[in-house]
């Protein structure tokens, strides 16, 4: 998405509606992929780049000139109900918010980035509950073993979520990258194992006859791909290797592993 400086002609109305009279006027051109809920909102924040490659964030009027909402580019079975699609911008009036790079560098960015792990955690709980019901009904020892493993994983993930949340609540202005990546990976791994175990226990029945679980089996793999898997782990390891060892949850000296 390319951003170019613009005269304020035609952008004053956008500034008035959004209360951003001090925003820098821009014109945006390009295609923005995976715009969930584009048809349900009045305005949107979009990421873009200026002529120097700087990352910007800008606000647009979704129903204003130069905006075309499509259902193109989204063929996923999972998360179909998000109404995702590509949005095409052509000389779209926009207002820049903050300086170049501020979207990623601002305090609180990774605090918010940690929150998706709680969504992943909540979404997998119906699988654990279904496995528990199956064990109660049938008493199969293999199913019971899977339930024990799922319970242990979920308890560990929940403990890390609470620890991370407590740290974030008291470090709202601190770089939270390490804390966010750590909890995201731990919960992602827990969710993937729980889904695999639930499938082993429950078989094809829920995929065919239980609408809620069938939807979750399709939705969760798509939602989890907000993680970048080994790339995130590699970055986490690099940051941990440079840790100062101040002892808080966001870092990782060798002393931090002691109880």
UniProtKB/TrEMBL annotation:
GO biological process, one term: fatty acid beta-oxidation using acyl-CoA dehydrogenase
Entry superkingdom: Bacteria
GO MF annotation terms: acyl-CoA dehydrogenase activity
GO cellular component: cytoplasm
Record's keyword annotation contains Oxidoreductase: yes
UniProt keywords, alphabetically: Oxidoreductase
PANTHER family in the record: MEDIUM-CHAIN SPECIFIC ACYL-COA DEHYDROGENASE, MITOCHONDRIAL (PTHR48083:SF2), MEDIUM-CHAIN SPECIFIC ACYL-COA DEHYDROGENASE, MITOCHONDRIAL-RELATED (PTHR48083)
Name assigned to this protein: Acyl-CoA dehydrogenase
């Amino acid at each position: 998405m390319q951003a170019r400086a613009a005269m304020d002609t035609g952008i004053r109305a956008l500034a008035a509606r959004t209360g951003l009279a001090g925003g820098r006027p821009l014109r945006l051109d390009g295609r923005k992929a995976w715009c969930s809920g584009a048809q349900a909102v009045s305005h949107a924040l979009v990421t873009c780049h200026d002529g120097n490659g700087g990352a910007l964030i800008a606000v647009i009027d979704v129903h204003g000139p130069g905006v075309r909402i499509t259902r193109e580019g989204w063929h996923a079975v999972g998360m179909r109900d998000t109404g995702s699609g590509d949005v095409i911008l052509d000389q779209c009036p926009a207002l820049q918010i903050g300086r170049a790079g501020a979207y990623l560098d601002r305090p609180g960015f990774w605090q918010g980035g940690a929150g998706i792990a709680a969504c992943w955690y909540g979404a997998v709980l119906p699988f654990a509950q279904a496995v528990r019901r199956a064990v109660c009904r049938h008493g199969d020892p293999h199913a019971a073993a899977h339930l024990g493993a799922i319970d242990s994983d979920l308890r560990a993930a929940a403990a890390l979520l609470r620890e991370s949340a407590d740290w974030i609540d008291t470090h709202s202005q601190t770089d939270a990258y390490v804390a966010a990546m750590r909890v995201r990976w731990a919960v992602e791994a827990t969710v993937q194992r729980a889904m695999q175990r639930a499938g082993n226990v429950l078989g094809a029945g829920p995929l065919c006859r239980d609408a809620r679980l069938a939807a979750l089996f399709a939705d969760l793999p798509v939602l989890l791909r907000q993680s970048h898997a080994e790339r995130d782990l590699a970055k986490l390891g690099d940051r941990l290797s440079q840790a100062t060892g101040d002892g808080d949850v966001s870092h990782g000296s060798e002393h931090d592993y002691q109880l």
